[in-house]
Design brief:
Helix content: 10-25%
Number of strands: 13
Radius of gyration: 19 Å
Largest sheet: 8 strands, mixed
CATH superfamily of the largest domain: Glutaconate Coenzyme A-transferase
CATH topology of the largest domain: Glutaconate Coenzyme A-transferase
Distance between the termini: 66 Å
Number of domains: 2
CATH class of the largest domain: Alpha Beta
Oligomer: single chain
Length: about 250
C-alpha cells in the first residue's frame, strides 16, 4: 500500500515493543521528533536502545525517556547538555557507546545503504580503535563493560579502523513537509541527522508539520525518498527551543 498516513502519533508508535532499537533524528534541540517521542513515553515502552547524535536535554526530546529509566543503552556522539545522562552513565545505570560524530553519521547512512561496514581514519590510534572505552560502569565506579578493539587495516600507507553499520528496528524523524507516499523535506539544520536516521530504520516513522499531496513536492527538493518511510503522521507546529539563548546588552548613549 502506498498510502502511509496514520491518524495519530500514538497509533504510529503502537507496535514499538520493549527492548526495541530506535534511530532518532535531530541535532541538539533542532529537528527532534518530539511528538513521536512523547507518544512512546506515554505508551510506557522500556529497555530501549537509542541511536542519536545526543540524548536530548533533561526535560526535552529523548531526555524524557531517559529520566524515567526507559533507555537501557544508547549510541551517541555528544552527551554534554544532559545532566541526568551523565548521572546515569557514571552510576552504572546506562550503557553508552560513544562514537565520533562523523562516524555515527556514516554508520547510520551505511545501514540504510546496505553496506555492512566501512573503514575510516577517525579514531585510529585512540581508544576508539584500541578498545577500553567505558560503556557501562559498576556502582562502585569500576568498569563493568569496556569497548572491544576494532580491526585496523592499512591502505596506501595510512591506517583505517573498521566501523560496523547501524540498522535499527525503528526510526523516528521530524520533517517540515511530507506527502502521503512518505517523501520528506527537512528545514535548514534539521537536515543534520534526520535523513540518516530515516535511512537506518527497518520501519521509519516520520512526523511532519505539513502534509501535501503526491506530486506537490518537486522531485529535486525531496531529501528523503518515500521508499525509506513506512508511516507518516501530521503533528502541529510545536515549540521551537533554542539550545543556548544569547542576547546582546542594550547599548546606552
Amino acid at each position: 500500500m502506498i498510502e502511509k498516513v496514520v491518524a495519530t502519533a500514538r497509533e504510529a508508535v503502537a507496535d514499538i515493543a520493549d527492548g526495541a532499537s530506535i534511530s532518532v533524528g535531530g541535532f541538539g534541540l533542532c529537528g527532534i521528533p518530539v511528538a513521536l517521542i512523547e507518544a512512546l513515553h506515554e505508551k510506557g515502552t522500556r529497555e530501549l536502545e537509542t541511536i542519536s547524535n545526543n540524548c536530548g536535554v533533561d526535560d526535552w526530546g529523548l531526555g524524557i525517556l531517559l529520566a524515567d529509566g526507559r533507555i537501557r543503552r544508547t549510541i551517541s556522539s555528544y552527551v554534554g547538555e544532559n545532566q541526568e545522562f551523565a548521572r546515569q552513565f557514571l552510576a552504572g545505570e546506562l550503557e553508552v557507546e560513544l562514537t565520533p560524530q562523523g562516524t555515527l553519521a556514516e554508520r547510520m547512512r551505511a545501514g540504510g545503504a546496505g553496506i555492512p561496514a566501512f573503514y575510516t581514519p577517525a579514531g585510529v590510534g585512540t581508544q576508539v580503535s584500541e578498545g577500553g572505552l567505558p560503556r557501562r560502569y559498576n556502582p562502585d565506579g569500576s568498569i563493568a563493560i569496556a569497548s572491544e578493539p576494532k580491526e585496523v587495516r592499512n591502505f596506501d600507507g595510512n591506517d583505517y579502523v573498521m566501523e560496523r553499520a547501524i540498522t535499527a528496528d525503528y526510526s523516528l524523524v521530524h520533517a517540515a513537509k511530507g506527502d502521503r507516499y512518505g517523501n520528506l523535506v527537512y528545514h535548514a539544520a534539521a537536515m543534520n541527522f534526520n535523513p540518516l536516521a530515516a535511512m537506518s530504520g527497518r520501519i521509519t516513522i516520520a512526523e511532519v508539520e505539513e502534509l501535501v499531496e503526491p506530486g506537490e513536492l518537486a522531485a529535486a527538493s525531496i531529501h528523503t525518498p518515500g521508499i525509506f518511510v513506512q508511516r507518516v503522521v501530521v503533528v502541529p507546529k510545536g515549540e521551537k527551543r533554542i539550545e543556548k539563548r544569547t542576547v546582546r546588552l542594550e547599548e546606552t548613549s
